[in-house]
Amino acid sequence: MAKQISILIDDDIKPKFERVCKNMGLSVSSAVNMFAHATVKNAALPFVPDADDVQDDYERVLSASIEHSKQGKFIVMPFEEFERDYVNK
What we know:
Blueprint: H1 13-23, H2 28-42, H3 51-70, H4 79-86
């Protein structure tokens, strides 16, 4: 049985991703499912992340964390949870 998940994707990337998937004869759901299977099978991402992308994510989360600390809000949680819950909110 399949389970539903919800993901956030950059506004400018979503239509491009949908178009690429369509051109390959895939639905977005199928492409994400293939990504998940490849990640689990290899216990790693199925590609090497671009250093600039990783740096951009890090800087965005760090900036949000600094803003929260300036407001006296100190939060201890994993990077991914902080990014999901507090960055660009």
